[in-house]
Amino acid sequence: MRKIPGTEIMRPTTTAPGFLRGYVLPALWLFALPLFGLWFTGHATSSVDGDVLSSIEQQVAQDTQLDEQQRQETLAFFRAVPASAACLSTDAELANFRSNLGGVCKDVQQFDWMHSLALGLLALGLATTVIALLCGLAAFVSRPFQYGSFVIGWNVLRVTGALQAIGQGGLAVWLSYWVTALWFNRYSPKLILVVGALAAMAIFMVVVAIFRRPPMDFEVEAEVLEESKAPELWAHVRKLCARLQTPPPNNILAGIDANFFVTEGDVRVGDRTLSGRTLYVSLSLLRLMEQSEADAVLAHEMGHLLGGDTGHGKRLAPMLAHFGQYLQTLHEGGLTRPIYHFMVAYRGLFELSLGRSRRASELAADRLAAGITSGRDIARSLVKVGAYAGFRERVESDLFSRDERQQSVAIARRVALGFAEYAQSDAVHGDLHGTVTPHPFDSHPPLSARLENVNARLAPADMAQVLLEPVTFSWVTTIEDVDAIEARLWGAYEARFSQAHDMVLAYRYVPSNEAEREHVERHFPPLTFEGKDVGVDAQLDFAQVSYTEWEEPVLLEHVTNASTADRMFKKYLDLQLAGEGRSKEKRSICLSKLKDPDALLRAFEHYLGRSRAMKEYQARSQQAA
Questions:
Q1: Are 391 and 415 within 8 A, CB to CB?
Q2: In Å, how far from its chain's centre is CA 364?
Q3: Which ranges in 402-455 belong to alpha helices (H)?
Q4: How far is it, in rounded angstroms, from Cα 485 to Cα 221?
Q5: Which of 2, 100, 186, 255 lies in the 20 to 30 Å Cα band around 349?
Q6: Rounded Cα–Cα distance for residues 199 and 195 (Å)
Q7: Per-residue pLDDT band at 17 (split at 50, 70, 90)
Q8: How far is it, in rounded angstroms, from Cα 263 to Cα 241?
Q9: What letter would DSSP give residue 470?
Q10: Is 497 exposed, middle or buried (0-12, 13-18, 19+ CB in 10 A)?
């Protein structure tokens, strides 16, 4: 099922406990580093004050020129005025104290600056939380409020997100020095460089993401249905639109997906980009529907045009896509992961309002369609669409779960031959009432709510009858060359399905026989990476990696961790091993000795990923057996 750009990011949890666990609690990580920074700067300041006071107390105790009363007065003064207070004060009376502290005041000033930064980040986080909550709640008021609140929320959050990335990045670099310096009396230049590089990369990625525009191509696998190819269908759609008093679509697409939809956004079909209003019709579903049932579906989709749903979606889509790209950047930024969770929480709250308004739009479109046709036609069409989608998904899932290659997947044929038996089984009722109708744009209400909305009732026995009744007239019969169109679309779809299944099998096989080995090696062939010197090379296949300086190859299934490191001006690939019956050991490949070390790293990551995926699949299979 295809999705419009920007709508695929979230699938919100609608229960309060689920939303709390999934979104709210992770969002609190935004405050973790500032809170730690706030505590640490206070702790560091207290530590410096304690050290200075201890040193002063020793000096005072050893000063023989002071009598007991002077000694107690001196100690009382320094205990009442900590070193940090003197450093941060502009009081002239403390000038002598400050001058004697020397470099201590420089450290204290750093602690004070970082304390202010941490406090500012916390205040910024709290202010952002308030704005996000207000914008999220305003989105529930109405559609105009929904759009306006998201515009405000998105623009505020992306700026505050960038400020958080900059502030928390700087705080992290500062802490990377002072935490070890204060607690262990040493610091690690390598740690500081690593944290600094991560912070710089995160800040760069976030700032760039603010201005980078995401691709908005909405590609649909279908064929454009020109009016000359389907004049009766075009005329009928225009007639329905006239009754609804809404402009007709500019384009009609014919495809084989298990859904219908309309959009006002640009749609790419092959090498063509279509603008204006576009209606997508499923040839597979039209074959199952009587004219009146198809009219109910078409009227429903035109109702979205009339109700402004598609226009609202068109305005929101670019911002949702941009926000989705921003979220992805935050997720990949490493140090920005806490900011990512906070942004996801806002997006989740907004998605709840979107789901609510979309469900209301679906029910409104159903009522409009029932006024043009009837509640009975709406009900029958919903049952047919839901049942077909459910059975097709079952067929495809069964094929994809098989561990042997299929000479011909023949999805269309399997669905056609097995649909009648499925329609009479108990499975169809679970699929119809346990799921929602698939759709690339909207969150659909449950079938029971939609039937009640149009005052329609269908008993289980009635549903089976609806699915098994022969169709007397279908709009498919009015489309020129419709069989050839379906054959082309199914051929392309089934070919991609087979290719995807073949690739998945290459990730599943151990392998256990020659045929399976050949299949895996077709996707993961043996590779040799030549060294700069004669007699040095590295070899990699789906099962193991070998290197000329090793006594024996290393099985990929024994690799628990792989990382690169620089030692003595050379770069290495380090492998941590843990095999059965052996203690952990380490093997290394000197990448600097190879002609193309980057090629080895790319291939090794790919092959190691296959090995781990294979182990996980085999473990799941054994548990299920």
A1: yes
A2: 31
A3: 411-423, 427-434, 447-453
A4: 12
A5: 2
A6: 6
A7: low
A8: 15
A9: P
A10: middle
Alpha helix stretches (DSSP H) within 509-583 = 514-523
Strands 554-555 and 544-547: antiparallel
State both tokens at 258.
């298990």
Distance spanning both ends of the chain, measured CA to CA:
31
Q: Per the structure block, which two tokens stand in for 395?
A: 């067929």
Q: What is the CA radius of gyration of the chain?
A: 33
CA 124 distance to own-chain centroid: 25
The region that residue 188 occupies, defined by phi over 0 for left and psi between -120 and 50 for alpha, beta otherwise, is beta
Higher model confidence: residue 551 or residue 5?
Answer: 551
Burial class (CB in 10 A: 0-12, 13-18, 19+), 316: buried
Whether the Cβ atoms of residue 385 and residue 284 lie closer than 8 Å to each other: no
Q: Using the CB atoms, write b or e for 342-360: b if 16+ within 10 Å.
A: bbbbbbbbbbbbbbebbbe
| Spatial CA neighbour of 272 closest among 293, 250, 304, 242 | 250
Instruction: Tell me which H or E stretch contains 266.
Output: none
Collect all residues with Cβ–Cβ distance below 8 Å to 355 and sequence separation of at least 6. Answer: 12, 14, 443
Structure tokens belonging to residue 473:
């007239």
Structure tokens at 553: 């190859």
3-state secondary structure 204-224: HHHHHHHHCCCCCCCECCCEE
- Please report the pLDDT score of residue 3 as a whole number: 36
pLDDT at 229: 94
Residue 511: asked if its preceding bond is cis (omega within 30°), the reply is yes
Looking at residue 362, its amino acid is: E
Q: Which tokens belong to 606? A: 């790919």
Interval 142-200: pLDDT, tens: 878 888 888 898 889 989 999 999 999 999 999 999 999 889 888 888 899 989 998 99
